[in-house]
Amino acid sequence: MVRISIPTLPKVPLVPPSGISLLPLPEAASYLSNFLEKGKGKTTILTGAGVSVDSGIRAYRGEKGTYSNPNYKPILYHELVEDSERGDMFRRRYWARSFLGYPPVRDAQPNPTHIYIAALQHLGLAPNLITQNVDNLHRKAYSLLSPNYDESSILELHGTLAKVHCLKHRHEQTRDIYQDEISRLNPVWDNEAKEAERTGRRPRTNPDGDVELHGVDYRSFEVPPCKICEKEKVKASMVKPNVVFFGETITPTVRDGSLNLIESSSSLLILGTSLATYSAFRLVKLAVELKKPILMITTGPTRADPFVGKGMNKMDRVAGDVLGKYLDEAVKTSTGKEVEDVKRYLHTGVVKRPPEVEGPRAEG
């Protein structure tokens, strides 16, 4: 039996805050400016859950993070796809909770940090983005600046909640269509979801669209089979969201694409992540091995902290503050359509903090 564990982080940073973490904001923005200038338009960005906290989506880790709770047990990939009565109950539990948890993620809007990152891409300062987030917010942000943006410039390392597919035939459809089918089959749950939305008393939603429910009997919840299978008159297959579960490997296409982006980049800018998952950490490890300049801007301990001073520099601070200050200065004297696009939307992001998140704006 393979043992699958949820990655955790030390309680305190592995290294003390470095000199650049203590820079006043204007100097921190200047440091970022120099880093991007040396990248000459070939810097790749890597982001994590901390970027989406200001959009009302909680981070996975940190003091309030879901995976910091030893009692939290996400459904693992082999449990979700198990062809048995036990697997059937896991699927009922997953989809019931996700049915309630998806709307807050679907309705979330890009916050200023998402806009700033899209601006870096749109201005050609860091054209390619690898994100661990499944909330679709980077795409929403970039589409504001450029409705016809190159969709291949955003690589979703762990997939997206916006789509689902069946396991047997890979029939893909939007999550909204599948959500409507769940509503039709589960009127009692649908009424509960509408009441929660009306009153604002939604259960706590995690970054993967899961919610925390206690003492619930999931046996009455109906999980819709793939409707495309039914239309094509083939045996209906179970449906899975287009996200990578714990215990599941990312596809070779995504894996190779992410590694190629690191190899072809001049430098790596890491924002709002603890890098606890290996799929992201190995990208940083590769960048170190290839001697690419690396700048990390995030708060708290990270898996990559041992690389500080060995090819990587780290600012222990909120990434959005530094990005915003840098872009304010960068667009002052610049001209062109892309600059005007950025000026129009630069500070239009929506800030909606998660209810349980208090105090400093933790990331990652």
From TrEMBL:
One matching Pfam family: SIR2
Signal peptide: none
Molecular function as annotated in GO: histone deacetylase activity, NAD-dependent; NAD+ binding
InterPro entries in alphabetical order: DHS-like_NAD/FAD-binding_dom, NAD-dep_sirtuin_deacylases, Sirtuin, Sirtuin_cat_small_dom_sf, Ssirtuin_cat_dom
Keyword terms, alphabetized: Mitochondrion, NAD, Transferase, Transit peptide
Family: Belongs to the sirtuin family. Class I subfamily.
Protein name from the UniProt record: Deacetylase sirtuin-type domain-containing protein
